[in-house]
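User: Could you go from structure to sequence for me? I need the amino acid at each position, not a summary. Structure tokens:
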């Protein structure tokens, strides 16, 4: 079975590397605290509760670190725009919303980047899927929870720093 690939912009990849380093440092702090508590925990329920709280936090960090390592190891990094004439991951897409009669801008990024706090539209979402591969001037129809919307693509640029 092929390993899952995670689409990331270069900026998103670097951001997740920083996040991983931060989590590893925070995990090490918890390990140091646990070592201290193991020596001090006696019959005091307050100390025992603090020990278990730190242990739980360490386990949470372990899970996050494992997930980030997996993502980074299987990242498909989008450095270049494969086709500047079509909407691709790493593109900023400006559209005219025919329903709302207003301009909107979407940064197309992978769902992992959105999960970790990047503002953008996941390429796996209905809007992202509808925009992928489209050209300026094309109209797309998207079924959203609020109903059907129609966008006309107006401009494609790379996300700054992506």
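Assistant: Here is the amino acid at each position, in order:
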């Amino acid at each position: 079975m092929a390993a899952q690939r995670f689409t990331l912009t270069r900026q998103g990849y670097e951001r997740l590397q920083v996040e991983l380093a931060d989590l590893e440092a925070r995990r090490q702090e918890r390990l140091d605290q646990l070592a201290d508590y193991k020596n001090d925990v006696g019959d005091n329920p307050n100390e025992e509760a603090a020990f278990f709280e730190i242990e739980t936090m360490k386990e949470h960090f372990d899970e996050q670190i494992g997930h980030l390592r997996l993502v980074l190891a299987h990242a498909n990094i989008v450095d270049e725009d494969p086709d500047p004439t079509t909407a691709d991951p790493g593109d900023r897409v400006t559209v005219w919303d025919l329903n709302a009669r207003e301009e909107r801008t979407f940064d197309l990024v992978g769902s992992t980047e959105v999960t970790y706090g990047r503002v953008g539209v996941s390429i796996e979402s209905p809007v992202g899927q509808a925009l992928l591969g489209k050209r300026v001037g094309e109209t797309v129809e998207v079924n959203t929870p609020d109903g059907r919307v129609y966008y006309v693509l107006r401009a494609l640029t790379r996300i700054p720093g992506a």
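One structural detail worth keeping in mind: The two ends are 30 Å apart (CA to CA).
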